[in-house]
Design a protein that fits this description.
This protein is of the alpha+beta class. It has helices spanning 13-18, 32-44, 47-54, 58-72, 88-112, 128-145, 198-203, 253-261, 271-280, 309-321; strands at 2-6, 9-11, 28-31, 77-79, 84-86, 120-126, 149-155, 169-173, 182-185, 192-196, 219-221, 231-235, 238-242, 248-250, 267-270, 284-286, 297-301. The chain folds into three domains: 2-112, Orthogonal Bundle (Arc Repressor Mutant, subunit A), CATH 1.10.10; 120-182 and 296-321, Periplasmic binding protein-like II (D-Maltodextrin-Binding Protein, domain 2), CATH 3.40.190; 192-290, D-Maltodextrin-Binding Protein, domain 2 (3-Layer(aba) Sandwich). It contains ten helices and 17 strands. α2 packs across α3, α2 packs across α5 and α3 packs across α4. The longest helix has 25 residues, at 88-112. It starts with a strand and ends with a helix.
Length: 323
């Protein structure tokens, strides 16, 4: 598809010729690919992110954009080294073509549903805790429904770029998902709790306020990035981020629970992972009024457009499981 561009703007040159009119500048062609490039940049307002989704380098994308603007004779974006913003011409063009592209996307998605059963490979990046808590039960059901698909789960607590890492999707807490990703809930809301053994509290006093933790041995958590987690609390609108102290630091939530069961200190972990220990009395929860629920884990992926059949089927199963 091509769009004819004249000095006065977009026009139907063939219609003009039939009516005996002439365009007042040399006709220049803007292809469907050009419009797709423009639309992707307009959606992201970031050349690097748009280039990843389009599968080209940022320099190639910048060169393509300059070519489009040259052919149009209009600047579509104001660009600096730090930001990209639509011009008035860019906003007008976006408002006209975005609905049309959405119609095309919807039509392609309808065709996807007519394809054969999902086959191939599905790669998912997921934190260790979320793998155990929400992902594995869904994957087990998924493999029952689609035995032709092979699933690889890379459980790593590092914040990995799923696109550059070659993953189809990832699972993370909602607050850690990039804003340009499509994200859907996978699993219920979460709650973190502070726990210790009865023997621990025979030796140490029970904390009544997060500041009381500063005098107690706590099992600290270091992320793969090197950042040490600050325990987060919230009560009646008062939010506290507490840097606790303690002689033991670990990088896995499961090991933190084991260490707490061995009386090594207080642990701040997902409630779901210690529910059986709490019910059996092996662990005791404290500071419960400072530990409200929060949005849980999300499945996220780069785009809704033309999802591979294996990923589309997995997304649909996650949505059904959440109802």
């Amino acid at each position: 598809m091509t769009v004819t561009v004249c000095k006065g703007g977009l026009c139907d040159n063939a219609k003009n010729l039939r009516m005996g009119y002439e365009c007042d500048s040399v006709m220049k062609k803007v292809s469907l690919t050009d419009l797709e490039i423009f639309l992707m940049i307009a959606r992201h307002l970031n050349l690097s992110r748009a280039s990843v989704e389009l599968g080209i380098t940022p320099s190639a994308l910048s060169h393509a954009l300059r070519g489009i603007e040259t052919r149009l004779g209009l600047r579509l974006f104001n660009r600096t080294t730090r930001s990209v913003a639509l011009t008035e011409a860019g906003r007008r063009l976006l408002s006209r073509i975005e609905p049309a592209f959405q119609e095309i996307d919807d039509a392609m998605e309808d065709l996807n549903h007519l394809r054969a059963r999902p086959t191939g490979n599905l790669r998912i990046s997921c934190g260790r805790a979320s793998t155990r808590m929400v992902l594995l039960p869904i994957i087990a059901r998924y493999l029952e429904l689609y035995p032709e698909v092979s699933v690889e789960v890379v459980d790593n607590d590092a914040l990995i770029d799923v696109v550059s890492g070659g993953f189809d999707a990832g699972v993370r807490l909602g607050e850690r998902v990039e804003v340009d990703m499509v994200a859907i809930p996978i699993g219920p809301p979460m709650r973190s709790v502070v726990v210790g053994t009865p023997s621990f509290f025979e030796k140490y006093s029970i904390p009544r306020h997060p500041r009381d933790l500063l005098g107690l041995p706590c099992i600290r958590h270091r992320f793969p990035s090197g950042v040490v987690y600050r325990w987060e609390f919230n009560k009646d609108g008062e939010k506290l981020d507490t840097q606790v102290n303690g002689p033991l630091m670990l990088g896995d939530v499961g090991l933190m629970i084991e260490a707490a069961l061995h009386h090594a200190g207080l642990a701040y972990v997902f409630e779901h992972m210690v529910s059986e220990h709490l019910a059996a009395g092996r662990l005791i929860q404290v500071l419960g009024d400072w530990c409200p629920a929060y949005p849980g884990f999300y499945l996220y992926y780069p785009s809704r457009r033309q999802l591979p059949a294996a990923l589309r089927a997995f997304v649909e199963l996650v949505q059904i499981s959440g109802k």
